[in-house]
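cron nightly-structures :: item 1 of 1
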Amino acid sequence: MPKAIIIGAGVAGIATAMRLAIKGYEVEVFEANAYPGGKLSEFKQDGFRFDAGPSLLTMPQFIDELFSLAGKDPKDYFQYQQLPVICKYFYPDKTQITAWADKDKFIEELSKATFEPKENLVRGIENSAKIYRATHEVFLESSLHQFKTFFSKKGFKALFRLSQIDSKRTMHRANESFFRSKKLVQFFDRYATYNGSDPYRAPATLSVIPHLEQQYGAWFPAGGMYAIVKSLVKLAKELGVNFNFNNPVNSIILENKKAVGIKASNGIHKADIIVSNSDVWCTYKRLLANHPELHPDKLLTQARSSSALIFYWGIKKQFEQLDLHNIFFSKDYKAEFDAIWQQQTIGPDPTVYLNISSKLEPGDAPEGCENWFVMINVPANNGQDWDKLIKEAKQNILNKLSGILREDIAALIASETILDPRSIESKTSSYQGSIYGTSSNDRFAAFLRHANKSSKINNLYFCGGSVHPGGGIPLCLLSAKIVSELTPNA
């Protein structure tokens, strides 16, 4: 039985381990932390439970697929419910928009709140769907680094539709062409942040993102987002996958440009294939530090995606006007992105993302309280004075939320934990704390991410958010699928 070693127990690493075990591999996973999940983790404090990573589940069919491949009923491991409201948006002028999962209600809501003609909304939403139809089979679900991908029926079909992906203009310019309302342009611009990019620089191809949310809905797992990890690990163990926690990998062992094993904290382990679920920058710069001649230097110097500053607050009150997901927009969205990408700082009036999982899981907070996941977009770590920035940002966030909710939020905070780019980097080995690896602030960047199979090192593969096809739970799961299709049969 051939052996596979997975470096990192993030969602992509676990999914890759499961797929290879199903193919007949003996699989071992090495994880530096004491827990699985990578960026998708949880913690408990002062009677509150917090999901510490992604807070929105889309396209759960990719999770269900893993259980089906193993001949299991997904419902025996993992249950989730669709949210009738995906997000609720608050604007400074008191405008509120409810993003209904129902497409017709959503269009009606947007038109009513912004006075946008419905035909413009239909046109913009259809454009998003068109990009998805043109890209998903080849650009999202297949390797872009194999000739056979393009010399196939679906490959020729995708190339024929290449003009439909809208890559020649920015996402912001595209949204301006569809919508009259500045609020709506801002609304659809913000989807660039789903992969850590800037709508004023990123190609309009990223307008595919709202389609994924609207077409496939938003979901909440029973037990919170970390239930995804728990269910996948449970099945992986049933499939024979062996997890080694608190066991960081120090290096990948090469022989004649061939990956043959790893050196971990507990010794050397040999394998037929190695799959890195670690950030691609860290894989080369740390695990392959002795082989600089094999590094993809151009890729490793690309601009990083944005990071995040997150306050996990236990709040001593329940707010009836707040739904599960809430967005509080800034007064000047462009100024916020300029601060992130040009000045490498945090703007004075940031967009605040608020998630309250205790709305659906009452046990996530003590009675009469709520658990708040409060996040703003920030630049990757380049040596900024984060202690100073965090202090300033916290006060700006509190001023913003207190003004909108007409309540002194600071007085209601019973518990606080802070996650910033420095701690994201130390906990997840994400270079500079960037959440999605390299940014997509370039016409071709979204399609030139690192391959899922090394072209210079035999038997070395890559999965996760820093490589093709990108970050976020659905794309990480697709990277695992691509790796399993590239690896030899057992």
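cron nightly-structures :: done
The radius of gyration is 22 Å.
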